[in-house]
Amino acid sequence: METVNLDLGVDSYSIFIGGGLLDDGDLLRRHIAGNQVLIVTNETIAPLYLDRVLAHLSGYQVDAIALPDGEQYKTLDTLNLIFTRLIEMNANRGVTLLALGGGVVGDMTGFAAACYQRGVSFIQIPTTVLSHVDSSVGGKTAVNHPLGKNMIGAFHQPKAVIIDPELLSSLPERELRAGLAEVIKHGAMASFDDFCWLEENIPELLSLNISKLTFALRRNCQIKADIVSQDEKEMGVRALLNFGHTFGHAIENSMGYGNWLHGEAVAAGMVMAADLSVRLGMCEHGDALRLKGGDITGVRGWCCWRYDGLCSGMLSAWCVLHSDSYHGTLPCRFLCWWKNSGKSSAWQEHDWRLPPA
Ligand SMILES: NC(=O)c1ccc[n+]([C@@H]2O[C@H](COP(=O)([O-])OP(=O)(O)OC[C@H]3O[C@@H](n4cnc5c(N)ncnc54)[C@H](O)[C@@H]3O)[C@@H](O)[C@H]2O)c1
């Protein structure tokens, strides 16, 4: 088992990573303070893994709720289902919420924990690559509003995160690849060595080699944990985790949420950011090509597997960035990719006001 510690003073916690950890009842129970537990999961994950978690909790007053599956249900209405279940089970302030699922379940469970009786404990058992390395690390929780994604939320840190990479065996391949985009983002950001390791090992990660996955997930959680420890509330350096997101959000926005997975949009966004970096003279063309993935998995590349949609996605994103809401009124913040002192890669934020029409 690998452990990454997140150093946040009284809110410090550990992330445990290892094949088979879902069946480690002692590890789970060590992080449950009271005797009440509500497991929050969804209708897809419950039939796969809920019984294995319930098996560890026979001595507790335990209940479970399976939410409808999908980003479209990450809403205040769905959140209310969790509150109703908590009140029905007479949950007190000692209750622990247990998030069993991907980023959607994790974000909603964390936000419910932040609000219920002004704050109770929660534990994350994330089940997607994205939730392993991104959404379960750092304490951001939220639901969507019809007028904007993640608009209602709170910072609330879990008591522990338990990552079992074996759960990825049931994850659809498209979700796996989209999650790996965030892994590559962290690697490209941390150091050139990390990037090269990923470049070499992507095929093994895609084929779910557990020891390689454990290594990559631990390293990724460490990279994010280091940044979050420096800047928990995103006042500065944490924004660097948004590499590829300016273009990525524009792609999601213009292609319609749900048509592209978030990780797919971020992957294309990173390619576009690297391309911009080349044009600004900050990155070598060859390095930008490596980020695109041509050298990683062969012809189509890891991030361009939706190559057919990529060009229209980029074009639409470009139109959004040139639209009235951006044009001349907002500085667009792009994170560029550049190689620092030959060895490590780094980010540089570039404020760029689009030229007048
Ligand atoms: N809090 C943060 O810091 C943060 C960071 C990044 C993203 N997010 C949020 O995370 C969400 C996206 O998370 P996601 O990519 O994990 O999507 P998701 O939670 O919607 O999961 C993707 C799909 O895979 C299914 N699934 C999950 N695990 C599975 C498994 N092991 N086997 C089979 N099916 C499985 C889910 O039911 C779902 O259908 C977004 O709402 C985004 O806003 C939050």
Helix content: 40-55%
**Unreliable stretches:** 294-309, 324-331, 341-346, 353-357
| CATH homologous superfamily grouping of the largest domain | Dehydroquinate synthase-like - alpha domain
Oligomer: single chain
Annotated CATH architecture of the largest domain: Up-down Bundle
- Which structural class do the helices and strands define? alpha/beta
Assigned CATH class of the largest domain: Mainly Alpha
N→C terminal distance: 56 Å
Largest sheet: 7 strands, mixed
**Total DSSP helices:** 12
Give the ligands present. nicotinamide-adenine-dinucleotide
Number of strands: 11
| Rg of Cα set | 20 Å
Briefly note the CATH topology name of the largest domain.
Answer: Dehydroquinate synthase-like, alpha domain
Strand order of the largest sheet: 1-2-9-6-5-3-4
Search tags:
357 residues; alpha/beta; Rossmann fold; Dehydroquinate synthase-like, alpha domain; 7-stranded mixed β-sheet; two-stranded antiparallel sheet; 43% helix; 20% strand; globular; binds nicotinamide-adenine-dinucleotide
